[in-house]
Amino acid sequence: MSYSKALIPPRAPPPEAATRMRPARMTGYVVVTLWALLGLALLAMMISNWDNEKFFKYGPRFLHGLLTTVELVAVSIVFGALLSVPLAFARMSKNRLFSGLAYVYVYVFRGTPILAQLFLIYYGLGGFRTEWQSVGLWWFFREAWYCGLLSLTLNTAAYQTEILRGAIISVPRGQHEAASSLGIGKLVAFFKIVLPQALIVALRPYGNEIILMVKGSAVVAIITVFDLMGETRYAFSQTYDYQAYLWAAIFYLTIVEILRHGLEWTERRLTRHLTR
């Protein structure tokens, strides 16, 4: 039997390898520093150019425009989601007529600018005053708010259709076969097995679509809807102060950040059983 009579003295740890500053990291530091300096400069200008008279005069108008934007986006997203359900099933239908019509709808509204769609609805359909009055719908097409709501709804419905269709298709075919082997009906299997999995997949694309709609809704200001951007344009036309648009950008950024964090929390909550 052998044994040690003395302990091995401790040794100093090896020297850490010197890390060289790579050009990409250096560029990133420079860009972040420039953005930080720009933000501080804007904050300093806002503080130095603060005007209480403008704040109390146009502040309530900005809040009213903010509420109008939130209302417009929320209603259009809900109506677009309701419209996207039959359109998604039509896109997946084996009937060529249904699938073809749904494809044309999605192709047109995804392939054309939302501004062009807004003008076609407000100025194009709004030009048929006599016809709309004869069927009792002139009250809808004479109001810019309703025309903006219709254009946003039709636009987001096209995108939500593809999001929902892609999410449903992404569910493995084995889920359908397993439900069928257990004697579960197709309708029950869809709502209890397929749809919950599809909505989890579609959650992040839905979030992106909502954020895009918040920013895209600013186009309704062109047809005299006093949303956040509409009130901003009015304030700028009266004061010629660039800070009006800066405050609008801050409001939009705040909405987007609230939505982003809310969607991340929802995703973590719904997928907590998938994490290890």
What can you see in these coordinates?
- The chain is mainly α.
- Helices cover 77% and strands 0% of the residues.
- The protein is built from 11 helices and no strands.
- The protein has helices spanning 23-48, 52-92, 96-111, 114-124, 129-135, 138-141, 144-170, 173-181, 186-216, 228-239, 243-270.
- Helix 8 (173-181) runs antiparallel to helix 9 (186-216).
- The longest helix is centred in the first third of the chain and has 41 residues, at 52-92.
Question: Can you describe this structure in just a few lines?
Answer:
77% of the residues lie in helices and 0% in strands. With 276 residues, it is mostly helical.
Itemize the secondary structure elements and their pairings.
Layout (H helix, E strand, L loop, with lengths): L22 H26 L3 H41 L3 H16 L2 H11 L4 H7 L2 H4 L2 H27 L2 H9 L4 H31 L11 H12 L3 H28 L6
Helix pairs in contact: 2-3, 2-7, 2-10, 3-7, 4-7, 7-9, 8-9, 9-11, 10-11
**Spatial gap, N to C terminus:** 48 Å
What's the count of strands? 0
Mean pLDDT: 86
Residue ranges: pLDDT <50 for 5 or more in a row? none
The rough form would be described as flat
The percent range for strand residues is: under 5%
Succession of helices and strands:
HHHHHHHHHHH
| Helix content estimate | over 70%
Quickly give the structural class.
mainly alpha
Q: Helix count?
A: 11
